[in-house]
Inverse folding.
């Protein structure tokens, strides 16, 4: 049976079940930590740190951005030198704590995107996740436009930012990612993704995966990610 690609409603259902105390028992902090770790591990496996040491993490205001901030922390410990562009920080303790953790590791934050792009080897797109819909609003419309004009390789978390979660990049307004790191299960919009495709998020209980027919691949050894294309 082939790996199942899921739509927005099912992705939301899975998250709800995972964070239901009577079902999954996970907190948002736990899921974000595990997701961010799997992203960092996929980056490590796909992009040699000697060739791509400088990683620009472009973070959005939601959970996708939080995954990116967690990934940045792990990338430091994996030997990379991340920089954070976080144009619309979220004023919640969880996100403040993630920023504090990065500040403690001396990870620089920058508001100057063009300058940051001139000093990076790889972009980690953590702007929009599976909850995104509608038009790309400021300030992210200009951010995505700037990233699209760059020739630097992009790795996207869960779905390339600007893509419709179910229809893909039909409008051609989204990012042209070289690598996609899907979380939990790949999204329907990524069926026609052409590039390196990884799956991260090794936390879905087997009963949940079986009930929803996800047909998830096995994760090798202690890895938190697996390459699916």
């Amino acid at each position: 049976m082939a790996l199942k690609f899921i739509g927005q409603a099912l992705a939301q259902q899975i998250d709800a079940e995972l964070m239901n105390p009577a079902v999954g028992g996970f907190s948002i902090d736990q899921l974000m930590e595990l997701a961010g770790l799997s992203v960092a591990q996929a980056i490590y496996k796909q992009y040699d740190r000697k060739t791509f040491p400088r990683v620009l993490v472009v973070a959005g205001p939601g959970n996708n951005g939080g995954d990116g901030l967690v990934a940045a922390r792990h990338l430091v410990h994996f030997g990379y030198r991340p920089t954070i562009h976080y144009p619309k920080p979220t004023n919640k303790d969880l996100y403040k704590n993630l920023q504090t953790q990065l500040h403690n590791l001396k990870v620089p934050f920058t508001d100057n995107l063009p300058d940051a792009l001139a000093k990076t080897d790889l972009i980690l797109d953590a702007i929009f996740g599976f909850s995104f819909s509608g038009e790309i609003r400021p300030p992210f419309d200009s951010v995505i436009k700037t990233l699209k004009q760059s020739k630097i390789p992009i790795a996207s978390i869960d779905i390339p930012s600007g893509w419709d979660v179910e229809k893909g990049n039909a409008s051609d307004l989204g990012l042209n990612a070289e690598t996609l790191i899907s979380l939990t299960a790949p999204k329907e919009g990524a069926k026609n993704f052409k590039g390196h495709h990884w799956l991260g998020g090794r936390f879905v209980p087997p009963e949940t995966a079986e009930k929803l027919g996800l047909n998830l691949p096995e994760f090798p050894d202690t890895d938190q990610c697996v390459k699916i294309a």
Summary: The radius of gyration is 16 Å. The chain has a mean pLDDT of 96. The longest strand covers residues 54-59. The helical segments are 8-18, 28-46, 63-77, 93-104, 113-117, 140-149, 206-211.
